[in-house]
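In keeping with the milestone schedule agreed at the kick-off meeting, the structural modelling team has produced records for the first pair of proteins. Each record is given below as a sequence line and a C-alpha cell line. The laboratory manager (R.T.) confirmed that both were archived under the project's standard naming scheme.
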Amino acid sequence: MNALSVGATWIHAIAIVVLLGYYVTLSLVVLPWLSSGGSTEPGRVIAAVERRALPWILVSIVLFTVTGMVLIAAHSGSNPSWTPLIIVKHLVVVAMVILGIVIDRVLVPRADGTWWTPAVVPLTDVHDLQPIVLASAAMSSLGAVVLLLTAATQLA
C-alpha cells in the first residue's frame, strides 16, 4: 500500500467517523434529551442542530466521495474478492444518501415548521419527533455498516 492509499484510507475513515459521530450523537444524546422534554420547542432545536452540523456533514460527504474514488482507482482489478464488498458498500451509501435527504429536506423542516410555505407551527409534542429518532438511528446503523465494509475492503 503506497502513501496515497494510506492517506486516502485515513481521510476516508475520518470522513465516515465525522458523519457517523453526528448521527450517533443525535440518536443517543440530542433526541433522547428532546424526547424527555428538554425543550418546549423540540422542532426548532432539532432544526438548529441540523443547521449547525450541515457544513460538517457536507464536508465529510465530499471527502468520503473523493477519497472513495481514489481508493477505487487504486484497488480496481487488484483482487476479485474486493468487488462484491465495494458493491454492497455502495448500496449502503446510496441508502444513506437517500435517508439523509429525507432527514434534511423532509423530516427536519416538518419539525421546524418550515415544510410548507407559509411556515406552519413547529413541533412542540415530543412524540412527533419519532420519525427523526428512527431515521437518525437508521443512519447511525448504516454508517457503522459502511465503516465495517471500509475496513473489510482494506483486507480484501
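The second protein of the pair:
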Amino acid sequence: MTSALVDCPACESTVSRSAAACPKCGHPIRDDLARGSVMRRSDGTGAAAASDTMGLLSMIFGIVAIGLAFVPFEISWLAIVLSLMAVIFGGVALARIGRGAASGRGMAIAGLVTGMLGLILFLFAFAYVLNNPNEF
C-alpha cells in the first residue's frame, strides 16, 4: 500500500506526494521522489526513516577498537577512545531509532557490542602486559 503522504527532507513537514513543492519551505518534492530521497510514509503517521549514520559510525569504531586492542601500547590507547565512542554513538543511535527518527538498529547494536568487546579486550591485554613485564 502506497501512502499519499511523504516527509519533506528540508523541513520534515508532512506533504502530499502529488505536490510539486513543500508548501511550508518550498523544497521540490517531485524531484526528490524521483531520486528516492524523500522519506516515504508507511501509513499516515509513521515515517520509514533513513538509516542512521551514528549506528554505522558506532559499528566502524567498535570494529577498529577490537583490532587496536592488540597493538603496542603506544597506539592501543586509541582502542579505549574508539570503544567509548562506539558505545556512545550506538546508544544515541538506538535512542533515535526508538523515537522513529532513524533506522539501522542492527548496526547500532553491533556498534554497542563491538565497542564493549574492544574495551574488554584492551583491558585484558593491558592486564596481561602489567602481569608479565619481562615479556615486553
